[in-house]
Design a protein that fits this description.
With about 525 residues, the protein is mostly helical. The chain has 20 helices and no strands. The chain has helices at about 5-30, 35-105, 105-115, 120-135, 135-155, 160-165, 165-180, 185-215, 230-245, 245-260, 265-300, 305-330, 330-340, 345-360, 365-380, 385-410, 410-435, 440-475, 480-505, 510-520. The radius of gyration is 22 Å and the shape is globular.
Length: about 525
C-alpha cells in the first residue's frame, strides 16, 4: 500500500469517529447548550484528555515506536516482546499511582488548574469534581491503548488503532439517547456522559488487546524494573510527552482563562470539535503513519526514501487542510448553525461559536504541519527540538490569550492558539532545513503554490455565497439550510479540486490508484 493509501486508511477510520463525534456534540448542545453542566463536563474531561496526550499518545508515539522498531530489527519479535512487557509493567504502576492521587486531590486540581473560576459557583464546582473523578480512569485505559496502538503501528497495522476511538462516541451517543428517553435532568445527563467516557475507555482497551492477540503478539506481566531500555524510553518520552500534548496544553490554558466567562468553555469545545475534523482525519493519519515509516527508512539508511516520505506527507497534509481552513474561516456561521443550533443552543451561541471556529481555523494548517515536522526529529531520537518548539508555543499562547481575551472575548483565546501554532511550525521548519534533515523538492514547492491558489479561488466563491445568500444559509428551514450548505460545499470542492487537478497541484495518478484499490476492495 502506498503512503497516501495508508493515510487514507487511517483517515477513513478517524473520519468515522469524527462524524459520530459531530452527532455526539450536536446532542450535547441540544440537551445542555452552553450552560453550567456543559461547562463542567468539558472542563472535567479536558484534564484526563490532557494527560492522555502528554503521557500516553504523545510520549509513546514519539519514543516507544522508534525503540520498539529497533528491538524488532536487532533482536527479533522475542526481544521486542520482552521490551514491551518491561514498559507495560512500569506503565501500569505509574498509572495506578497517578490515578489514585488525581482522584483524591480532584477538588484542589479543579480549583487551581482545571477551572479556577468555577469556585465562585459551588454547584458547577462540585459537579466538575465529581465528573473529574468518574472520568479519570479513562486516562489509565487510554494510556494502555496508546501503547498497544504503538505496537500495532510498528507492525504496520494502522486501521484498528485508528478505529478504536469510534467506541467513545458510540457509547456517549447511546448514553445521550437513553438520557433523552428517560427525560433526565441536566446534572444527571452530565453524570451519564462521565460514566460513558470511562466505559468507552475499557472497551477500546479490550478491542486492541484482541487485535494484538490476532497478530500473535501476547504479553505477560513482569515485575516493574527500570531496565536500561525503559530508562531510555523515559528519557525520550519526557520531552516528547510535552511536545505531543502541546495542543491540549494550549487548550487547557485557554480553558483556565475562559473559566472566568460563563459558557466560554463549552463554546470553545463546540468550535474545536469542528476544527478537529480535518485536523484529526489528516493530522492524526499523517502522525500515525509517518513516524514508523520514517523510522524504518532511517534505520535502513535510506535518506532518499525519508525525503520522499516527508515531501509526500507535506503535499497531502496541505492539500486537505488549507482548503478546509479557508472553508471554516469563510462560512463558520452556517456550519455551526446547521450542526448545533437547536434546543438549548441559541442563535447568540451560534454567532459566538462561529467566531471562535474562524479563529481556530486560521491555525489549522499549522497544527497539521506540526504533525508532519515532528516525526523527522522523533525518528532520529531528537526530542529536544520539538520540546523547544512546544515551550515557545505555550509562552506565545499564554501571553496572547491574556492580552486578547479582555479585548476579543473567547475568540481571542482561539486566535492566540492559532498564532502560537504558526510560530512553533516556523521554528520546527527552520531547524529541519538548516540541519539538513529536510529539503523541499521542486515538485512539492510547485504543488504547494498551486494548492494555495486553488484555495484562494475557492475562498472567493465562499465569500460571494456568504455575501449574497446568508439569509438562506442561516434562517431558512432546516432542510433548505442543509441543502444550501451541501450545495455550497460541493461547489467549493469542484472549484478547488478542478483547479488543483488541472494544474498539477494534486497528483491525479496517485488519487486514481487509491480509488482503484478501494473499488477492488
Amino acid at each position: 500500500m502506498s503512503l497516501i493509501g495508508k493515510f487514507a486508511s487511517v483517515g477513513g477510520a478517524t473520519m468515522a469517529s469524527r462524524v459520530l463525534g459531530f452527532v455526539r456534540e450536536a446532542m450535547i448542545a441540544a440537551f445542555l447548550g452552553a450552560g453550567p453542566v456543559a461547562d463542567a463536563f468539558y472542563a472535567a474531561f479536558r484534564f484526563p484528555n490532557l494527560f492522555r496526550r502528554l503521557f500516553a499518545e504523545g510520549a509513546f508515539n514519539a519514543a516507544f515506536i522508534p525503540l520498539f522498531a529497533k528491538e524488532i530489527e536487532g533482536g527479533g519479535p522475542d526481544a521486542a516482546r520482552k521490551f514491551a512487557e518491561q514498559v507495560l509493567a512500569v506503565l501500569l504502576l505509574s498509572l495506578f499511582v497517578l490515578s489514585a492521587l488525581a482522584m483524591i486531590f480532584m477538588p484542589f486540581l479543579v480549583s487551581t488548574v482545571i477551572a479556577p473560576k468555577f469556585i465562585e459557583d459551588p454547584d458547577k464546582f462540585e459537579l466538575t469534581v465529581v465528573l473529574g473523578r468518574i472520568m479519570f480512569p479513562y486516562l489509565a485505559a487510554m494510556s494502555l491503548v496508546a501503547m498497544l496502538a504503538g505496537i500495532l503501528n510498528s507492525l504496520r497495522r494502522y486501521f484498528l488503532p485508528a478505529l478504536a476511538p469510534v467506541l467513545l462516541n458510540i457509547v456517549l451517543v447511546s448514553g445521550l439517547i437513553a438520557a433523552g428517553f428517560l427525560e433526565l435532568s441536566a446534572p444527571d445527563i452530565g453524570m451519564v456522559l462521565g460514566w460513558s467516557v470511562t466505559i468507552s475507555g475499557a472497551l477500546q482497551l479490550g478491542l486492541l488487546v484482541w487485535a494484538l492477540r490476532r497478530e500473535g503478539f501476547t504479553m505477560g506481566f513482569v515485575r516493574p524494573r527500570l531496565t536500561p531500555a525503559v530508562k531510555r524510553l523515559l528519557w525520550l518520552a519526557l520531552p516528547a510527552a510535552v511536545t505531543g500534548g502541546i495542543t491540549q496544553i494550549n487548550l487547557l490554558v485557554g480553558q483556565i482563562i475562559a473559566s472566568a466567562q460563563d459558557g466560554a468553555i463549552a463554546v470553545m469545545n463546540y468550535a474545536d470539535r469542528l476544527n478537529q475534523l480535518p485536523l484529526g482525519v489528516i493530522g492524526i493519519a499523517i502522525g500515525v503513519v509517518l513516524l514508523p515509516e520514517l523510522s524504518r527508512a532511517l534505520r535502513a539508511g535510506d535518506m532518499k526514501d525519508a525525503q520522499h516520505l516527508q515531501n509526500r506527507s507535506l503535499e497531502f497534509g496541505l492539500a486537505i487542510t488549507v482548503p478546509a481552513a479557508v472553508g471554516l474561516a469563510m462560512i463558520p456561521e452556517p456550519i455551526i448553525g446547521l450542526v448545533f443550533e437547536r434546543g438549548a443552543f441559541t442563535r447568540e451561541t451560534t454567532l459566538v461559536t462561529a467566531s471562535v471556529l474562524a479563529a481556530f481555523a486560521l491555525g489549522l494548517p499549522a497544527f497539521v504541519l506540526t504533525k508532519i515536522f515532528t516525526p523527522a526529529f522523533y525518528a532520529r531520537e531528537d526530542m529536544r527540538t520539538p520540546l523547544w518548539a512546544s515551550l515557545i508555543s505555550v509562552v506565545i499562547n499564554i501571553a496572547g490569550s491574556l492580552f486578547l481575551f479582555p479585548r476579543l472575548g473567547v475568540s481571542g483565546i482561539a486566535l492566540a492558539t492559532s498564532l502560537a501554532g504558526w510560530i512553533s511550525v516556523v521554528f520546527l521548519g527552520t531547524r529541519l532545513v538548516s540541519g539538513g534533515l529536510f529539503r523541499l523538492t521542486a515538485v512539492t514547492l510547485k504543488r504547494m503554490g498551486l494548492i494555495v491558489i486553488a484555495s484562494a479561488l475557492m475562498g472567493g466563491l465562499l465569500w460571494w455565497v456568504e455575501a449574497n445568500f446568508s439569509a438562506i444559509l442561516l434562517d431558512a428551514a432546516l432542510s433548505v439550510r442543509l441543502s444550501a450548505v451541501l450545495i455550497t460545499v460541493l461547489a467549493a470542492a469542484v472549484v478547488y479540486f478542478g483547479f488543483a487537478f488541472m494544474t498539477g497541484g494534486l497528483d491525479r495518478a496517485e488519487f486514481a490508484r487509491m480509488l482503484r484499490r478501494r473499488k477492488k476492495a
